Fold this sequence. Notes:
The chain is of the alpha/beta class. The protein has one domain (about 5-250): 3-Layer(aba) Sandwich (Rossmann fold), CATH 3.40.50. It has 10 helices and 10 strands. The protein has helices spanning about 45-50, 75-80, 95-110, 125-130, 135-140, 150-160, 180-195, 205-210, 230-235, 235-245; strands spanning about 5-15, 20-30, 35, 60-65, 65-70, 80-85, 165-170, 200-205, 215-220, 225-230. The strands form 2 sheets. Strands 6-7-8-3-9-10 form a 6-stranded mixed β-sheet, sandwiched between helices. It has a 4-stranded antiparallel β-sheet with strand order 2-1-4-5, covered by helices on one side. It binds adenosine-5'-triphosphate and magnesium ion. Magnesium ion binds near residues 44, 45, 87 and 171.
Amino acid sequence: xxETLLSVREIHTYYGDSYVLQGVSLEVxxxxxxxxxxxxxxxxxxxxxxxxxxxxxxxxxxxFRGRSLRGRPSYAIAQEGMAIVPQGRRIFRSLxxxxxxxxxxxxxxxxxxxxxxxxxxxxxxxxxxxxxxxQLAERINHLGGALSGGEQQMLAxxxxxxxxxxLILMDEPSEGLAPRLVQHVEEIMxxxxxxxxxxxxxxxxxxxxxxxxxxIHVLSSGRFVxxxxxxxxxxASEILDQxxxxxxxxxx
Length: 252
Ligand SMILES: Nc1ncnc2c1ncn2[C@@H]1O[C@H](COP(=O)(O)OP(=O)(O)OP(=O)(O)O)[C@@H](O)[C@H]1O
Ligand SMILES: [Mg+2]
């Protein structure tokens, strides 16, 4: 059994008086992709923000490598070995591709490196990121804002990798991308997994989550209504129909 990397235990997260996550628990094992599916406004981004310490839960606990993250600021959590690929990419539009990739690590360099130093196979450098995404290499001096949606997504992933995270939190990486580029996101996910990264993947693209995830949770109004393998979800017609708005026959 792979070791548990992230353990979210009965968290309750609010924005002011607004009660969003109502007792959510999940685990991400080392080297696994765990997907969170759910319709708009169900709390998927709030879950990512809770884990990253951006909107800390009011109750419950989150453990990373067995240690509680309670009370720790988001920059300290990032230094522990977590990176976010945010919804809508959030790259710096007026900075070049190179600057987008290099800037975040200049701050992290002062803290501990998240990946073990002797584990060279998992250490990312600018050169390795550009090898992984040759399209970014071709556009290294272009401004972020001049890239296509798919290229911006690659840049957002590349920027996260530059911090050498053990766990990558990805919030709807396929949103707004053409089908061919969604296929590319799928390939990126597989390569991250092959390199030993663990991923907590938020998606609304059911087919993508089904194709890459080891486990899937379905979130509905701040609670999980399903947890299982992609094959189990394919057979859960009521969940597909009621919580994801997908006709179960699609997977029959
Ligand atoms: N900063 C905020 N302040 C107050 N309420 C918020 C805030 N951000 C989100 N919410 C509310 O919390 C609920 C969950 O939002 P969240 O962004 O987590 O949903 P989501 O599942 O990521 O949706 P989407 O698929 O549209 O990205 C929604 O009702 C939303 O309106
Ligand atoms: Mg969201």
